[in-house]
Structure formats: structure tokens, C-alpha cells
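By way of example, we now present a protein record of this kind:
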Amino acid sequence: MVISQMRFLNTCLFSLLIALSLGATSVAQAEAPAKIKNATEAEVRQALTDTIKTTEEALNALKSDASQDIVQAHISDARQLVKRVEINRLDVIRTRSSEKLKSARQALNKGEKAQAEEFLSAALKGFQEMAKFF
């Protein structure tokens, strides 16, 4: 008698667990966010132009001995802008140039101004190359 009650209780608990897990997954699927739309060609072109401009500003600020905070702000802005450049055929150049921006920021943090300038120049060349192909 006790064994049959335990089996019944186990069966009920197992069924309840299955029902709750199915309910939880269906709610999670119902609340899935909408797909983010891809940027238009004009938006990508503008983002690339803005990235080049901001990288040039960072390089000019570095060369004119502007404060480190100003140069860092330009580098951060350029890194954010380049994220909006969505061109599959140019992903390799974009990634390398973005890494150069990151390296420039790290070199600036270490106080290596000449190294930061080299990285910024390399990033700018990469972005300009992207603009040429796009």
C-alpha cells in the first residue's frame, strides 16, 4: 500500500515537473525579441565616413599633444562607430583596424605615445581602404 502511494506520488510529481518545464519554455519562446534589422547601405557608408573622421581626429589630437582623455574619447568613439559598419566582404579589414584602435588605446594607457600613433595610423589606413572598396 505504501509503495503504491509512493509510486503515485512520484508519477504526479514527475508529470507536474514536465508540465511546468514545457510551460516555461513556451513562455520564453513567446517573448523572444524581434530580429534586429540590418543597416542600409547609406547607414553603413555614413558609419564608415564617421569612423574615418573620428580616427583622424584621434590621430590629430595625439600629434598635437592633446590630453590623454581627449584622445581616449576619440578612440572609443571610433571603436563604437566601426561596429555599425556591416559589410561581410570587408570584415577582415574592419576587425584588424578595430584591433589597431584597441592597441592604440592600450599603448596610450601605458604612456607609449609613439606606439599609439603608429597603431592609429594603421587603423586609419585600414578604414580608408574599406572606404575605397565600399
